[in-house]
Every structure is written in C-alpha cells, then in structure tokens.
Design goal:
The chain is mainly beta. It has a single domain, classed as Lipocalin (Beta Barrel). It has three helices and 20 strands. The strands form four sheets. Strands 1, 4, 5, 6, 7, 8 and 9 form a seven-stranded mixed β-sheet that branches. The radius of gyration is 18 Å and the shape is globular. The relative contact order is 0.17. It comes from Anaeromicropila populeti. InterPro entries: Quinoprotein_ADH-like_sf, WD40/YVTN_repeat-like_dom_sf. This is PQQ-like domain-containing protein.
Length: 296
Amino acid sequence: MKKRVLIFLTILCMLTIMGSKYQDMGVIEAYSEGNKTVAMDKPPFRYYLSGKAVTKKTSALNLKVKSSKANNITDDEEWFTKNKLTMNTYEVPNPYADTLGNVPDGIDTYWNDLMITAAFYDSSYIYCTYGSNFIEGYVLNVYDAKTLEIMYSLDFSEYRYAPDYIKGDYDYVQQKINWAAIKNNILYVSHSHSTYAKSSMNKNAYITAIDLSDRSILWRTKALVCNSYNFVIVNNVILCGYGFTAEPDYLYQLNISNGKVLKKTKVKSAISYIVKKGSAVYVRTYNTDYKFKIVK
C-alpha cells in the first residue's frame, strides 16, 4: 500500500485529538466578515470544455530521460536536499506535533471554523487550503504574496464527492485540493482522493481551469490525470501525474488552453512531486526518482 494511504489512515485515527489540540494552540481565528467566501458550483466529473475557452494548438514538451533510480520510498527529504530542490510550501500549524509552522504572519490559520491544512506559494500569490482536519482541504484562500491581502476565497465543497462511489468507502473518497496556480487570471486547481479509483467509480483526480473574472469553469480534464501532490506549468503545458497501487502510473502533459492530454509517459510508480529546475524536470515517484531534460 502506498505511503500516502498509510499517512491518511494514521491521520484519520488522530482527528479527535488533533481537533482539540488545535484549539489550544492559540492559532488566529479569522472570519470572513469583509472577505466573502464564494461557493463554487458543482463541476462535471468528466472532460469538459466551455465555449468561452480560447483553445490553442500546443505541442508536448520533448522530455528526455537523463536518469532513473530506485529510491528508499521514505527518503523524500533526502531527494529534495540532494538535488537542491524546493517545493515553495509552508509548514502549517500541526497540533499533533505541537508545532506552529512557518506560515507568514497575516495569513489566516483558521477560517470560518476550518483549520489551515496546506499552504504553498509562487512569486505572486500564497495559496492556503482549509478543512475540519488534515485529510480535508476544500476551501481555498489566495493571498497577495507581498501585501498578504486576501484576493480570493473559494469554497470547493461541491468538488469533494463524485456522483457515484462505493458507500462503504465514503470515509476515503473525499477529494481535496492538492495544488493551485494562477496564470493570466485563470486559476488551475487539482483535486483528488487518496484511495483506489474504483472507490469513486473512476471519477477522481482532476485539474480544473477557472476564469477568475466570473468563477466559471473553462475546462476540466478527464478523470485519473492528477493525484500528484503538485503540478508544474511550463509555458503552455501542465505537467502532472496519476497513479496508485495496482493502477497505471503516468506523467501527463496537458494543453493549458483546453486540459486535453498531449502526451503521457509511463513511470514505475505513482508520482508524488514534480519540480522544474532550469531545463531539468525532477520527478519523484513512490519507488523511483527520475530526471528529465527538456530538449528543444
């Protein structure tokens, strides 16, 4: 079983303890009196392309494998350190570990009774997810990276559950926000759950493109495209990964204008992280580390 499933089950057992300890840590509680959280409409759980989307022909990146090496499965930190890689993430307050994290002062660590569950950033924005525990993350707040002013607060509750799923697997099929990025006033956001695709009738692991001017969906990928912890935008291509135990594992390249798959590359196990550094793309999977070079 993959390590993310083991982590999921461990956290699930600790929810009651964590919830009470979080209240005792003195985290800032911030309500959205002046910052309205907008509820997003229920998305399609299939490929979708809006007539508003401006589609452009795009070619897949030419990725050449430079190395492929087995890893020790639990040595994620060593992989980042050895390759001098960063993920642009913050440590959020963790009541189970009694740590306050390193989220910048001014960022809400509590939002409308929901705790912060993840925080990451780019040069323009800080993205924070919120839920009732660390397994969840369905509200997304986007802050200006310089002023820390909240720019968007979006509630993705309607994205959490597919229309059909195995009832006995209800506790495991909630799809949370994994990663987000804004480019040209379009929000790209990934959602997935951490169990087998069959548990949600193969309706899992999407990236959705949202027009921030009116919060409408421009496109949504087909299912089973992105359950990696993050995705990377390289020019007009989105790099992401999908895989799971006893399921096909691929590195996907998507056309950023319509969400369609340009190319998929087989990898040995499910992708956890994708990091671009110069012309190199580092891909961390469950049991294998890859280094690709973007060849022009």
